[in-house]
Design a protein that fits this description.
4-stranded antiparallel β-sheet; about 55% strand; globular; mainly beta
């Protein structure tokens, strides 16, 4: 699962929609419609506010605060400024879609790859959203009479699949890259669970249960699934069969990212941190000492960007360093666009290609 950023710190992000007066929105658009500038990368500025979250979808950059969503295209041009009302905004992003949502709300704002915005009424109070690379959404909501509901929407925002959870609480869901399989992370009296469904039928394809363990995130990695708990990463194949795991041992999970080709973990122990890159079935691709505290990690097509307390670095999936910059010190987030360029986000500003 590709996460929106600031730094995640293993907490859920939320967002909601409402309206401000047209004059304020127009003024904001005029004030902050700036382009990337400079020969070796560029910069843009935006209106900054407390609690804001960031994401890239495709090569676009989005920032959402409790009152406003701003979107910039690959050239840094402000393509959308829209008033929102969200105590804790949240963004779900992929290369093909961006969804703005609010925990406990029942509406989403969805942008496609061309930047077209549509409103989507959810089927209950929303508490998790994800988007796959073809623009499909998996929306997890409350549902009266059940422990929850996961609804799948196609790229045209038509509901195409529903799973009513009767025996477990759905916590998050992720669609396979081809959009044919739905993976649902759930919790029950039995423990943490992974439920797998084909969108072509109603029968459950597979179920993985770990008694006494709570998984808080999942993502599709190298053709299979990765489930994350506080103590390990579990890997399943596309059919839902356990294929491998990586135990964190006595180390504390500081941060992580799940991408198309690898899963990356920052593990803290004894005052130091190390980075671990894992491929399909949990195969260890590489491990290296981190130069500082990892504040955020992003993964895009086998490229890894890590924001540290004193700078930033970019690696390939084998953790061979491809670039670093001390100028990223103090940044709020480090993101990777679809084209592999980094976006370093500071308070009220973002820089392209800094790392």
């Amino acid at each position: 699962m590709k996460h929106p950023a600031g730094t995640r710190h293993l907490t859920a992000r939320r967002a909601a929609l409402a309206a401000l007066i047209l004059a304020i929105a127009a003024a904001a658009a005029a004030a902050f419609s700036l382009r990337w500038r400079g020969d070796e990368g560029g910069s843009l500025t935006f209106e900054s506010a407390a609690g804001e979250v960031f994401a890239v979808f495709g090569n676009s950059f989005a920032v959402c605060s409790s009152t406003q969503l701003q979107v910039f295209d690959e050239n840094g041009r402000n393509t959308l400024t829209r008033a929102v009302s969200a105590e804790n905004p949240g963004l779900a992003a992929s290369d093909a879609a961006l969804a703005v949502w609010s925990a406990g709300g029942d509406a989403l704002l969805v942008l496609d790859a061309e930047g077209n915005a549509s409103e989507l009424a959810a089927e209950g109070a929303v508490y998790a959203v994800s988007a796959n690379g073809s623009g499909m959404l998996a929306v997890t909501t409350a549902c009266e009479g059940y422990r929850g509901l996961v609804t799948v929407y196609d790229a045209a925002l038509r509901p195409v699949y529903r799973w009513y959870a009767a025996t477990a609480w759905p916590m998050a869901a992720a669609l396979s890259p081809d959009g044919g399989t739905l993976a649902v992370l759930a919790a029950s009296e039995e423990g943490g669970q992974l439920r797998l469904f084909s969108l072509a039928g109603e029968e459950e394809l597979a179920r993985f249960v770990s008694p006494g363990e709570v998984f808080f995130d999942l993502g599709w990695v190298d053709g299979g699934l990765c489930l994350v708990s506080e103590r390990r990463a579990v890997f399943l194949d596309a059919a839902g069969t356990a294929a491998g795991e990586y135990a964190f041992g006595s180390a504390r999970l500081a941060d992580y990212a799940l991408g198309g080709e690898c899963a990356v973990f920052a593990l803290a122990e004894g005052g130091a941190q190390r980075l671990v890159s894992l491929g399909g079935a949990g195969a260890l691709l590489a491990e290296t000492d981190a130069p500082g505290e990892a504040l955020g990690i992003d993964v895009q097509k086998g490229k890894i960007a890590v924001l540290y307390s004193e700078g930033a670095a970019v690696y390939n999936k084998n953790l061979t360093e491809r670039g670093e910059s001390a100028e990223a010190s103090g940044a709020a987030a480090l993101l990777l666009r679809a084209d592999g360029e980094t976006v370093t986000v500071f308070s009220g500003a973002a820089r392209l290609g800094l790392v």
